Amino acid sequence: MSFVFFDTETTGLKHGFDQILHFAAVRTDADLNEVGRFEVRSRLMPHVLPHPSALLTNALPIERLVDRALESHYVMIGRIRHALLDASPAIFVGFNSIRFDEEMLRHALFQNLYPAYLTSNHRNCRADALSLMMAADAVSPAQLVVPRNADGGPTFRLPVLAAANGIAHERAHDALSDALATLDLCRLVRARSPDLWQRFVRFSNKSAVAFFVDSEEGFVLTEFYGAQAYHAPVTCIGSDPDQANGRLCLSLHEDIAGLAAMTDAELAFHLSAKPSPMRRLRVNAAPTLTALYDASDAMLDGVTLDEIEERARRLQNDAGLRARLVAAYVARREPYPVSPHLEGRLYNGFPGPEDEARGEVP
Amino acid sequence: MSAADVQRAREAAQAILREFGVTAPPVPIERIVKSRKINLQYAPLEEDLSGMAYIKDGVGIIGINALHHPNRQRFSAAHELAHHVLHDEQIRQAVHVDKGIRVLFRDEIASLGTEPMEIEANAFASELLIPGELLAIAVEGGGIDLEDETGIENLARRFRVSPAAMRFRLSRME
């Protein structure tokens, strides 16, 4: 049982249409001591046109990508799958991995007819070190040096963040080097902000997140937009009817009595405000959560804990209002069109048991 | 080796419940652990390892397997809390003996409850997470059939424990 720190280098940013060129994983024990590493590259698939920016970023000349001595993409994905299954169950961690590397990996598995959700199944957990770094900066800023960009805002790009914190990162955008830098940053946060690290590990477990948001009257949800952290005390008002792993949460800065007095149309209009008082989280995406009793005053933004708990209780005791809020929020959604391309249909359904079994063949 | 004192273990759990003013399930085990200044730590451990209890630099620590289901994690946390509450002397001694952090593991032997300390810890955890008074209210004094899988699952869900833990508790209900 262990952590697996991993990274991918790709031909571009478009899931399903770009490909992984280089994959690396570093396996550690529970104390983040390295116990093994794995690395594999593949040549370019004939139908994939690499994005020039990706080639510049990865510093990969086109001659290298078409080198026949490299593994085929199919062989590489098979080897990755074998290595990750061998490490399972584990907590999979990357840098911006929930939004990017995990998606690239899922699509690659899908397109090679393997079960796509390797890092979610097999009793695995997953978490994103980028969220951990942003949370560390937001919760205990003295523990992490966050460099500033030209506009004066914080930047969490891996190479500059690693350098600012004294972490050797000689080959930025090399998958192995990036995985090692991610591991080193995690070691740093683990040592300096142990409580934050504990929450990070705990909420890598989808069941633990679901249990927490469903059973706590209220909690603080921290979300990140444009490298800025936004904290909101919220309460979970129900599951997302369109997604089993989705949970809909309402900001506890809201006036609950005022909401209860609104008509359905008024509620729908109110929830359409930006930012919406309704927040959506995915229990399988390692959200950044803090129990109310662990939250700092800054996280509660001027409202007392008693007030927040009272609002949460009031909402939890009003099933009718919660149902109206969910309905009003969901009614605003536009239908999600099915992609005309097979590459874009990973999330349009699950393979049947027979196909799933075929994909599980070693 | 002395025999397990199950009654003492249950009374210790009941005292904590009174102190914390728990009046309805689920019992907030995480808050209870933290209120006693014990660090609750999560880590990806071997599958058969549920948790561990130890004292490091004078600070009580409970380690929980991050890969396990939350219901199992709650029971592990309560079980390990029992070692801190009931077996403080032993886990201090064991730290010295083992020169490190791994002291008391919840392994398969412990789950079977064959060691007196483990029997006491299981009784404590069971009473703490499924307090007798709250369980009596939940079953409305009518008892429950141990063969009634659905009934046990519903009860387990209310108390946020596994059906196995609920069955264990019901089988020992007085």
Which CATH class of the largest domain in chain A is shown?
Alpha Beta
What would the CATH topology of the largest domain in chain A be? Answer: Nucleotidyltransferase, domain 5
Uncertain runs of chain B: 95-112
- Strand tally of chain B: 4
Largest interface: A-B, 24 and 22 residues
Main β-sheet description of chain A: 5 strands, mixed
Distance between the termini of chain B: 27 Å
Q: What general form of chain B does the structure show? A: globular
Instruction: Give the total of domains of chain A.
Output: 2
Low-confidence stretches of chain A: none
Helix content of chain A: 40-55%
Alpha-beta content class of chain B: alpha+beta
Helix-strand blueprint:
The complex is a heterodimer of chains A (about 350) and B (about 170).
Chain A: E1 2-10, E2 20-28, E3 34-41, H1 52-58, H2 62-65, H3 73-87, E4 90-94, H4 97-111, E5 125-128, H5 129-139, H6 158-164, H7 175-192, H8 194-202, H9 206-215, E6 219-225, E7 228-240, E8 243-251, H10 256-260, H11 264-271, E9 278-282, E10 288-291, H12 297-300, H13 305-316, H14 319-331, H15 353-359
Parallel strand pairs in A: 1-4, 4-5
Antiparallel strand pairs in A: 1-2, 2-3, 6-7, 6-10, 7-8, 8-9
Chain B: H1 6-20, H2 29-35, E1 39-43, E2 51-56, E3 59-65, H3 70-86, H4 88-98, E4 104-105, H5 108-112, H6 116-129, H7 132-138, H8 149-159, H9 163-171
Parallel strand pairs in B: 1-3
Antiparallel strand pairs in B: 2-3, 2-4
Helix pairs in contact in B: 1-6, 3-4, 3-6, 8-9
